[in-house]
Amino acid sequence: MSTLNLVLMGLPGAGKGTQAQKIVDEFEIPHISTGDIFRAAMKNETEMGLEAKKYIDQGNLVPDSVTDGIVADRLAEDDTKVGFMLDGYPRNLEQAQALDSMTAKLNKPISAVINIHVDADVLVERLSGRFICKNCGATYHKLYNKPKVEGTCDVCGHHEFYQREDDKPETVKNRIEVNTKLNTPLIDFYNDKKLLYTVNGDQDINDVYREIQKVLRAI
Questions:
Q1: Binding-site residues for Zn(2+)
Q2: Which of 53, 126, 134, 164 is catalytic?
Q3: Nearest Cα to 142, choosing from 127, 154, 155?
Q4: Distances (CA, A) of 111 to 13, 51, 194, 211, 216
Q5: Angle at CA 49, nearest 5°, toward 45 and 54?
Q6: CA 171 to each of CA 88, 92, 117, 124, 128: distance values in angstroms, whole numbers, following the listed order
Q7: Would you say 185 and 93 are in contact if contact means Cβ atoms under 8 Å apart?
Q8: Which of 22, 53, 91, 173 is catalytic?
Q9: What does the pLDDT average to over 4-9?
Q10: For residues 122 and 118, what is the distance between their CA atoms, to the nearest angstrom?
Q11: Domains of the chain listed by start with CATH number
Q12: Tens digit of each residue's pLDDT (9 = 90 or more) over 81-130
């Protein structure tokens, strides 16, 4: 099989983390998540890492040019000779164009962009289903992890629950909308390049992976 250079896309709650792990385990390529490489670059005090730290310490967003530089440094490392999977990058059209340039320069072109698609309504339900016992902090989910007796905490027997602000439907909805706006131009960009493969994320985890496997084995 030829080298696999992947970009993994999906809205929050689409199950990207689970599928990323399965891809890495089977195809033995490094998982390049922007969060991880930012932390590593800052810890190792690379030129780009120090630059990023300046912005983060001031509570500002790291500009694209710095993010692009950190990704370029990571893609130039030896372990990416076997391929790689990018997760969390590119986040916008400018970054996608920068990725094009850097992969051309490194002679490591993108083989495929996997987009795990789940309807926004389903994602809101998935992400806003979490609630917490007010007394002991036990966590439940209205779809996947209900208390054994409705309205009663399994752990401490209390009956009062609350939702974190982050988990409230209106907050979740807003997060999904923001991410959809960011993702749409990227989906168009990779679709035009004939690199985009959309898989149905609204099914069993293993069925989602079977779809992804089919794509990756055909490349």
A1: 133, 136, 153, 156
A2: 164
A3: 127
A4: 25, 30, 10, 16, 9
A5: 105
A6: 21, 22, 20, 9, 9
A7: yes
A8: 91
A9: 97
A10: 7
A11: 4-119+171-218 (3.40.50.300)
A12: 999 999 999 999 999 999 999 999 999 999 999 999 999 999 999 999 99
CA count, 13 A, side-chain hemisphere, 118: 24
| The token pair that represents 15 in the structure block | 């199950």
**Partners of 6 in the β-ladder:** 85, 112
Please confirm, yes or no, whether 130 is among the known catalytic residues. Answer: yes
CA distances from 8 to 112, 118, 178 (A): 9, 14, 18
Q: Is residue 210 among the annotated active site residues?
A: no
Q: Which residues sit in the known binding site for ATP? A: 13-18, 130, 139-140, 203
Contacts 24+ apart (CB under 8 A), 158-161: 158/133, 158/134, 160/133, 160/134, 160/135, 161/131, 161/132, 161/133, 161/134
Estimate to the nearest angstrom the gap between the alpha carbon of 96 and the chain centroid. 15
CA dihedral angle for residue 163, residue 161, residue 124, residue 216, rounded to 10 degrees: 100
217 is a catalytic site residue? no
- What average pLDDT does the segment 30-46 reach? 92
**Binding site as annotated, residues:** 13-18, 34, 39, 60-62, 88-91, 95, 130, 133, 136, 139-140, 153, 156, 164, 175, 203
